[in-house]
Amino acid sequence: MKRRVALLVMLLVLWAGGVVARLAQIQIARHDDYVRRAARQQERTLELGAVRGSILDSRGRVLAESVAGVSIWADPQGISDPRAVTRLLAAVPGLSISPREIESRLAGSGEFAWIARQLTPELADRVRALGIPGVYFLEEFRRSYPKGTLAANVLGWVSIDGDGLAGVEHSFDRWARGRSGRVTILRDARRGMYLVGGDGSQAGADGHDLVLTIDEVIQYLSEKALRRAVERWGAAGGSVVVLDPADGSILALASWPTFDPNEFGRFPQSAWRNRPVQDLYEPGSTFKIVSAAAAIEERVVTPSQLVDCGQGSIEIARIRIGEQEGRRFGLLPFEDVMAMSSNVGTIRVAASLGESRFYRWIRRFGFGRRTGVALPGEADGILRAPDRWSRISNAALSIGQEIAVTPLQLAAATAAVANGGILYEPRIVRRVVDRKGTAVWEPGPPRGERILSDRTAAVMNEILKRAVTRGTGKDAALAEHVVAGKTGTAQKPVRGGYDPEKTVASFAGYAPADRPRLVILAVIDEPRGGGSGGAVAGPVFREIAEGGLRYLDVSPSIPWRELAIEPAVRLAEFSQFGSVNAPAPERAGSPADGVVIPDLRGLDARGAIARATRAGFEVRTSGEGIVTAQSPAPGARAAGETTISLRMGPWRETSP
């Protein structure tokens, strides 16, 4: 009996020792390995995107936001009949997943498979109502663009995992995306279902909101006018840029064709392009703004100086260059060279600048390099150095050929003339704020460089106003405001020359001319029927400017300006012959008597400077507003170089 008891005890000890050894192996030696195995079998940790920050326009209106969504997933091991489940899911209206794709996901050997991501709650409820075992639901946030196509090319879009892939969504992704959270999915072995919880769960942190410089209303006006022009002219596409000349803020960037960022995958990639910053084109005659400003600043020409326009053509290096539409001009004052958009006259003036000096001015206006706007994919433009120019390059560049620019570059250059001579770096984001509205990032003061003197900017303002009232830009004129601007009709370059059947029509301008609020560039690519820049793009400018200025509550500027500005000098008054170097015709008096001091009272600074400069005087101003007093007095005669001192003060409306 004792032997049997001893044997039994020994067996129990051996059994207990084996159990203890096995427990030691499981609990100690292979503890970490079994924990990992258990975790793989019992739980799964998913990374969930944070609530991405909203994108707001300059007045706080929502352009993009994150809204509640529901994702659907399944446990393939818990689905007994994958084909039946596939049929049920494929029949749900709005669940745009093919049966083959669903069946492929359910056929996996794992225990987790996504069925659909970030559905609307309504669509998820349709699936939930089916009560399919092994199919589960998880709350997520999805990106929504409530205005549809509005500003789509500026906003861009995000991936299914919340990564910014285009537009400001990409440029400011680190601010908008926030910090991702984690959720652990646990398996309940007894009931065969999953629960959300576990120690691995971690809340995310919301992203910050982006406040753009874009104004929703001006953006809408721009897109509407652009679409109408493209459709009316059967064009290949187009773009619009609207800037605030005071600081370079971008109020609108419109592209056509465009897309809906809520469903960007349904649109061709060509529609995704942000044309104003990514597309290059030869600007044609709108580039004459640069040529004219450089010539006036360098004092190689004055507004009233006669220029020989060669009766419609000029020959350079055995290449004959003519005027648009076969027009013919003889002697024109330079201001009318610009108003009538004479190629020959512009070429003659640019020749006086010389290659090196002209190139420096082109670079000074910002061409050949990026503007620095915080948008992805911005193009540098194309501008060759003078050592790579041909004998005809100086002439070609002066009329906007042999150079490729982006619409944003040209709009920024136009704004420099509009604001008195400062080239600003365009900006698209005004600030980044947290959920409480506190700014966490701001771009700082506007970065600008003075490239023109006040005098040159004022003279250019008068010249560009003339281009609208008397020249090729008449279709851009407004009923309530004076407009300054320049048309462009450029043939598209092809290998070996230019295609006469394909053009780019454009208009660059600003309004009100003497107190600019909006700088607008409209570019229409390949309008059918060969429409000119004035006829095709001018109405786009007019439609945007009319609606935009009324929206901004800008009071009409024409009534009092008509009282203050002298009548334009008629071309018939110039009967003498001369060239680009001929002296300006005298307005009054004679060399012996001196020149009559003009009456500048009642004019604003720009108008006063322009009129005095036209008459050959320098100007010094003090104060702000309009001219209330001047010295020498109006009507006096001055011989030789004379400076007119102007005292400025507040404007008070008076009867005629």
Report on the structure:
- With 656 residues, the chain is of the alpha+beta class.
- 31% of the residues lie in helices and 23% in strands.
- Strands 2, 3, 4, 5, 8, 16 and 17 form a 7-stranded mixed sheet that branches. A 5-stranded antiparallel sheet has the order 10-9-21-20-19, sandwiched between helices. Strands 1-6-7 form a 3-stranded antiparallel sheet.
- The longest helix is centred in the N-terminal third of the chain and has 28 residues, at 2-29.
- It is elongated and about 150 Å long.
- The chain starts with a helix and ends in a 7-residue tail after the last strand.
- The relative contact order is 0.10.
Percent range for β-strand residues: 15-25%
Terminus-to-terminus distance: 138 Å
The percent range for helix content is: 25-40%
Main sheet characteristics: 7 strands, mixed
Average pLDDT level? 86
Question: Using DSSP, what is the number of strands?
Answer: 26
Structural topology:
Layout: H1 2-29, H2 31-42, E1 43-48, E2 55-56, E3 62-74, H3 82-90, H4 99-106, E4 113-119, H5 121-128, E5 135-144, H6 152-155, H7 167-171, H8 173-176, E6 181-188, E7 193-196, E8 209-212, H9 216-233, E9 237-244, E10 249-256, H10 275-278, H11 288-297, E11 306-308, E12 313-316, E13 319-322, E14 331-333, H12 334-339, H13 343-353, H14 355-364, H15 393-398, H16 407-418, E15 422-424, E16 429-433, E17 439-441, E18 448-450, H17 454-469, E19 484-494, E20 497-511, E21 518-525, H18 533-536, H19 538-551, H20 558-564, E22 595-596, H21 605-614, E23 618-622, E24 626-631, E25 637-638, E26 643-649
Parallel strand pairs: 2-8, 23-26
Antiparallel strand pairs: 1-6, 2-3, 3-4, 3-5, 6-7, 8-16, 9-10, 9-21, 11-14, 12-13, 15-18, 16-17, 19-20, 20-21, 22-25, 24-26
Helix pairs in contact: 3-4, 9-19, 11-13, 11-17, 17-21
